[in-house]
Amino acid sequence: MAGITAGVATSHVPAIGAALDNGKAGDPYWAPLFAGYEVSKRWIAEAKPDVVILVYNDHASAFSLELIPTFAIGCAEQFAPADEGWGPRPVPAVQGHPQLAWHLAEKLILDEFDMTIVNAMDVDHGLTVPLSLMFGQPAEWPCKVIPLAVNVVQYPPPTGHRCWKLGQAIRRAVESFPEDLKVVVFGTGGMSHQLQGPRAGLINAEFDNAFMDRLIGDPEGQAAAPHIDYVREAGSEGIELVMWLIMRGALDERVRVVHRFYHVPASNTAVGHLILENAGS
Ligand code: DHB
Ligand code: FE
To answer: Which of 42, 62, 247, 267 could disulfide-pair with 187, CB 3.0 to 4.6 Å?
Structure first.
């Protein structure tokens, strides 16, 4: 049977991708950030997932304001890097896992999560930057990836509680897939950041670290937090953090913290990163 062994949370700042793609990862500004992912690259090379379910948000790259799915699952064979205005990132196309993706779509919809089924989609920095941070710059990504896009761009995004419940449903769905597959769930976005308006540049390290503490030790409590808490404390784009709750909902009640990293600044954003392994319920 398939099973989820671990979860990874990470910010997905586009400038991180640009730093890698343009050979600037060793610059003094970026080196401390990438140093925080060295452990992670070693961990995932050992963990060798067959499939990553990658929870992220599209930033008006694949979906415009004409069509805004709350939760969308990528069922295609392949997903190309999106052109976000300066050409697609020079990273490999993402290979999907249509059999598992369709199984997830079926189980989740019958479990009353109304997923949008996506058969063709380009994937933006929200998905490709976490892959680069975890896998470096390989010629091909070393595992299959199922994109799971969440609307956090246009109000109203789903609640943290709905995201937490979706994570639990994803776990049930994965565990009913008959093939032996090792699955890791990524939750991306955050941490505190605001890209526009009078509070642009807002960073709240205290909130970010408390969020990570609660995600680890009291995720259900964190899931009860309303949107306004994220927006007030973590800025308008801090709402991306609800996606971390999908990852956490897919794990055991108790988790082992393999790695925890927090770094400011990266572009306008505080970068947070966790690797959590299941430790029992
Ligand atoms: C930035 C961060 C994001 O999460 C994003 O989607 C776009 C930009 C930034 O800090 O520049
Ligand atoms: Fe983002």
So the answer is: 247
- Report the distance separating Cα 247 and Cα 10, nearest Å: 11
For ligand 1, the distance from its centroid to the CA atom of residue 124, given in whole angstroms, is 12
Instruction: Please state, in angstroms and rounded to a whole number, the distance separating the CA atoms of residues 94 and 83.
Output: 14
The verdict on whether 125 is a catalytic residue reads: yes
pLDDT in tens, 61-110: 999 999 999 999 999 999 999 999 999 999 999 999 999 999 999 999 99
What is the number of H-type helices and E-type strands within the chain? 10, 10
Q: Are 182 and 5 in contact (CB under 8 A)?
A: yes
Whether 97 is catalytic? no
Ligand 1 neighbours, Cβ below 6 Å, are 12-15, 59, 189, 193, 195, 237, 267-269
A 10 A CB-CB count for 80 gives: 15
Q: Choosing from 12, 97, 125, 273, which is the catalytic residue?
A: 125
Name residue 81's beta-bridge partners: 123
Q: Which residues pair with 51 in a beta bridge?
A: 144, 183
Q: CB neighbours of 89 closer than 8 A, spacing ≥ 6?
A: 17, 21, 81, 125, 128
| Domain 3-278 falls under CATH 3.90.220.20 | no
The model's pLDDT over 118-164, given as tens digits with 9 standing for 90+, comes to 999 999 999 999 999 999 999 999 999 999 999 999 999 999 999 99
Ligand 2: centre distance to CA 28 (Å): 24
